Amino acid sequence: MHAKEEISHMDEELARIREKKMHEMQERSRIRGTAGVISLHGGDFSRALQKYPALVVDFWAEWCGPCRTIGPIIERLSGEFGESVVFAKVNTDDSPEIAGHFGISAIPTVLLFGHGQLIDRIIGAQPEETFRARVKRAFFSGEEDS
Fold it and tell me: What is the pLDDT of residues 58-89, one digit of tens each?
């Protein structure tokens, strides 16, 4: 009987862990909002420049430590700005032609495009507030910062 009780206790503990993880995933999804961060490759990039009047693109690679610190910032800002600004990622290892076209020589580099035109470039890992301020300046220049 003791072994059955122990297995039952472990099943209950696993159920609690699963529920906690599910809640965390739902919370991350809620924070990110409906816009999300899109991944761009090859021809997708040109279409995105034409389709989205306000586009922020994070150039990154999996092996890049500072890129991993920028990723969550980009996700949070995507949720914060909603559908007003589209956030995207380009893996420079998978799409070196796009990185080369824009002269990306260091990552992370974040490019801000307004109506298909490059309007700002942020190189290196920066604080979240720096990214937020630059996005606001690029796309909401007539509005007061909050």
Answer: 999 999 999 999 999 999 999 999 889 999 99
Indicate the pairing of strand 117-123 with strand 37-39: unpaired
Set 48, 55, 56, 67: catalytic member: 67
Active site residue 67: yes
Catalytic residue among 48, 57, 64, 90: 64
> Hey, what's the torsion of the CAs at 74, 41, 35, 121, to 10 degrees?
40
pTM of the model: 0.72
Collapsing DSSP states into helix, strand and coil, what is residue 64?
coil
Name the residue type at position 95: S
Catalytic (active site) residue 9 = no
* Assigned architecture for domain 33-139: 3-Layer(aba) Sandwich (3.40)
Structural domain boundaries in the chain: 1-32, 33-139
Provide the residue type at 118 as one letter.
Answer: L
d(CA 109, CA 90): 10
